[in-house]
Amino acid sequence: MNTVFRIALFLGALFLGALSAGGTIPLVAQENSAGVEIVRRFNLTLRQDGRYAGHQQREVRLWLVASVDPGAYEGEILVSENTIRDLRTVASLMESRDAITMVHDGERLVQRSGVPVWQGIPTIPRGLAGGAAGAAGAANAENREWQAPAVIRVQLPDRSVAGIPTVVAYRLEGVETYRGEQSVRIEFGYRLQWPQSETQLEEHPAAEMFRWADLPAEGFTLRANHQGTIIIPVGGGVPSLHRTNVEELITAPDGTKTERRGFFLTWYRNVPHTDGITDDLVDRLQSLRVPEVDVGRDELNRVRLSIRNLQFVADEARLLAGETHRLDRIAELLQTVPEATVLVTGHTADIGSAESQVSLSVQRAKTIVDALIERGLAPGRFRYEGKGGTQPVGDNTTEEGRAANRRVEIRLLGE
Description:
Blueprint: E1 6-8, E2 33-48, E3 51-66, E4 72-82, E5 92-104, E6 109-113, E7 123-125, H1 131-140, E8 145-155, E9 161-178, E10 181-194, H2 198-202, E11 221-233, E12 241-251, E13 257-272, H3 275-288, E14 293-297, E15 303-307, H4 324-335, E16 342-346, H5 354-374, E17 382-386, H6 399-405, E18 408-412
Parallel strand pairs: 5-17, 16-17
Antiparallel strand pairs: 1-7, 2-3, 2-13, 3-4, 4-5, 5-6, 8-9, 9-10, 10-11, 11-12, 12-13, 14-15, 15-18, 16-18
Helix pairs in contact: 4-5
């Protein structure tokens, strides 16, 4: 295994065309991009204590951009879930949206803050980054197998999230044609086991990657087997296919056993700078004459539309009739970017309890989503959430400030 020179890439943020002849990768995204987006979509069948417990569709989306500090990265991990078979048919309530930070430690990107994320998978031989000759040479090499440490994100039955260390075994199967393109096929597999002793953890190959606070709570046991396939174009670039088959058995502290079987798919995308998109949307807004809608970029370079001073029935999620024109125009605007997933976030003024504010903001975000769907936008494009009064843009002690805080923001995510 030590004859294979490897690069460990955080979360599979794999951009082989950007690799150089020596050293490790200091960046996740290509230099001409604003960041990287990685999307994992899970399709799982659930059984609890041996009985069928439903079907789970979950999406975990990571958005990561370089920070101002050299070698540092910041971003968000967004999770949505439904118990239906096809997320494309309905709008999905966001389960969580959390900030994360990473740092390049000289060998790989390692998580520094935030909820647990995947680290170190896939780890790919550098020979596969050398174009057709390098890939063919690697495919014909005697040493076609290697191993590398990783940390795997697992959602436990109590909805908590853990990061579990493991070692991933890879096997290079060879060069083949995939969707009309010469590509390299890699098979991989790993097991997840919990609990592990303190000595095992201290001596684990992934000891420098996982955080002790991210390990499962006491009382959980886990036995899992994940196997999959990665297909990478010979000429370099992001994987054409990354599929992982899942078999998991988790026992909760109360003895309840949850079994998951199915698969998840992972997509990778370099995110282009959004200046052109932003300028185009601003021009369209002006031509459509939409009042009190601002277009810009958020702190993670995502296009953001802020709809100010929305008129709802007091303390309700019902829009007043006067908002019809603005929603018609916003729907027209979103039709011009049909490939984008749309995140709708509701905000309220800081009046009443925090719990009631969040509940109302979620309901109002859903009202906007429903209104846009009625105007012809596909339901599966939408994710929605509510932040209550926790992110004010105006002074809550004045009527003008409270009106500014009663807003809905629309962010354009990737495909």
